[in-house]
Every structure is written in structure tokens, then in C-alpha cells.
Amino acid sequence: MITTVSLATAQSPQFLPEIDSSVSINPLVCLRFQAKQTREGGDPTQAELGPSVDFYLKPWIRLKSVTAFDLDEAEKRALIFSAGYRILPSADASTVQRLQLVATANFPLQWGLLLSDRSRADNDWTNGEYDWRYRNRISLQKSLAVHSYHPKIYLRAEEFYESKYQKWSTTALYLGATFPIRSHLELSPYYDHQNNTGKKPNQQLNQLGLIANFYFTATKR
């Protein structure tokens, strides 16, 4: 009898809730706060909490036409820089403290498509030890028109380089949609498939998530 052993482990779909809130201070600065459950890059399931600040360039006219119905001001800007702090407590591992640095570029395409390229650096401290992670995410999204209602659909692909593994160890693929609810709230359900090769055996994750995005402004438009 020959027994075969799979080189990858697959798990049942996991649900990941998330709440994001943002307050536009002025046309060039936005404050954000995030609270979510996460599992990515080979890490255990963790909570993730913390603030960040976004710095924008002035909006492009072409970008404004592609993102005319978006509630998120960041998607209307050609270039966004962000710095934030996150704390990641976990029942199965030590708490992580993270300095997060992000740069995102948005490009309008034909047929009303928006292409985004996000580079993110996670600087992590755990029990006094330092690790870093670089993530590059490419997104393609399209706004739809259902009478006067404008939901969005998107596809995303993201690669993770982990210093502790010294290699590109995770690939994540996302499929999702965003549904505006009045003028201050969007709900975004998504599906995420991850392939983690940092540890042996390889790990396959299938995740379902729901993001509630709240948008506010501190000044009158």
C-alpha cells in the first residue's frame, strides 16, 4: 500500500470581520482607525487595532471621473502616503507591536477601471525581537451603475516578503465588492485565498471577510 502525504494543508473557510473609520481633516490629511480580525503571512489568528494618518496629493481630474461615486477620498488621489501603529494581540502567540508604512499609487484606465499599486512595510516588535515584512498589492476595481446606485467590484493580488523566512513566502488573492449604504458607510464582503510557504508543510487558507467602512469629514466641503 502506498500512502501519499499532501505538501499543503487546507483549512475550512474562516470569517474575518473588520471595522475601518476615517475622518478627513482637510483636503490633504485623513485620520483612520482600524479594528479587525486577521490571519495572514503565516501568522496565527490575531486581532489588529490601531490608528494611522494619510497624506494625499491633490486629486487628478481623470481620477475624479473614475471615482466620482467613491466615499473613500484616498481612491481619488494619485499618490497616498500613510503611517500607522498597530497592536496585534493573540490567544495563541505573543502580542506584536507594529509600525506600518504605506505608499499607494492610483492609475485610471479605460472602461472606467482603476488600477492601484500599494507597497507596505510592516516593522514588527515581539518580546523585544524585530522582524519586518514587505507587501506589494495590485488592485483592479470597477464601479457599476444600477440606476442611481453605484457598487464596486474588485480583484487583488498580493505578495509578502518575510524577513524571518528570507523569501517571498505568501501569495494572497482577493475577490470582493463594495456596497455604499447612505453617505457615510460602505460594506465590503470579500473572499481571500492564501498560499503560505514560510513553514512546512505549506498552508492554504480560504477566508471570508466583511469590512464596514465609515467615512466622516471634520470640515464642510
Task: Write the SSE topology.
Layout (H helix, E strand, L loop, with lengths): L7 E3 L3 E13 L2 E10 L7 E11 L4 H6 L12 E10 L7 E13 L4 E14 L2 E15 L8 E11 L4 E15 L3 E12 L5 E16 L4
Describe this structure in words.
With 221 residues, this protein is an all-beta fold. The protein has a single domain, classed as Porin (Beta Barrel). Helix content is 3%, strand content 65%. It has one helix at residues 61-66; strands at 8-10, 14-26, 29-38, 46-56, 79-88, 96-108, 113-126, 129-143, 152-162, 167-181, 185-196, 202-217. An eleven-stranded mixed beta barrel has the order 2-3-4-5-6-7-8-9-10-11-12. Strand 9 and strand 10 (167-181) form a beta hairpin. The longest helix has 6 residues, at 61-66. It starts with 7 loop residues before the first strand and ends with a strand. It comes from Tunturiibacter lichenicola. This is DUF2490 domain-containing protein. Pfam families: DUF2490. InterPro entries: DUF2490.
Task: Round the Cα radius of gyration to an integer and report it.
Answer: 18 Å
The level 1 CATH classification is Mainly Beta
Tell me the number of structural domains: 1
Enumerate how many helices there are, as a single number.
Answer: 1
Relative helix content = under 10%
Key features?
Porin, 1 helix, mainly beta, globular, single chain, eleven-stranded mixed beta barrel, 221 residues
